[in-house]
Design goal:
The chain is an alpha/beta fold and 241 residues long. The chain has helices spanning 14-25, 49-68, 84-90, 98-106, 123-129, 157-173, 190-197, 204-217, 232-238; strands at residues 2-6, 33-37, 73-76, 95-97, 113-117, 140-145, 179-181, 201-202. The chain has nine helices and eight strands. The mean pLDDT is 93.
Amino acid sequence: MKIMIINPDYGVSPEAMALRCSILKEYAAPDTELNMVCPQHSRVEINSALDVVLAAPELVSLAAQAQNDGYDAVVLYCFSDPAMEACREALRIPVIGGAQTACLAALNVCRSFGVMLAGSARLPEKKRFLRTLGVDPSCIGEIAAADLNGIDPWANREETLQRLTACGQKMADGGAEAIVLGCLSFLGLAEPLSKTLGIPVIDPAVAAVTTAESIVRQRLNTSKVSYPLLCSLAEEKLTQI
């Protein structure tokens, strides 16, 4: 099985993408091949709804290329699930978003869950976005922010974990039954957080990859009733990839 992971942030180094794949491989089956690509032209890092719109055309192209190259599924490596609906219209193979998958996975281990973001600036956007993922709003509890204040989660791993722990402890003390991490740069930190907080902590990157594996093993494809490709211009451009 081959899964293409699309990191929507422009210009991520090959070494950084390989590191992420190596961490995710610990959770994947031995026969699953993971590869990651990122945009080379958009010059956008996903930090807002506007960034998602600007990055979308190249993300759809990368997803279509993955299908043409024989990949079995595409994973969108971002808690905004950027261009997920568009990719599902363009592709037959499954397209799995980190946010939707993590929230749906959480309900397998709890009745309701909280979400922890990296920064408070995106709280209003995410509160609305989370209600579009197919989860009953009554199952979504507190949406909080660890306020990393510009800290690079990869360059400052220990400090990131400390801030996530402090925020998560407040959420747990307030009654959170489980926590979904609202940023895929927190990859690998869910397990130590869960042990410290004593409640399940869901890593959206891990949830997305393992869900993609499950969907492929069930031999399921994207429903073209739900996601028909109706745009002739898009179809023409996609056939050129």
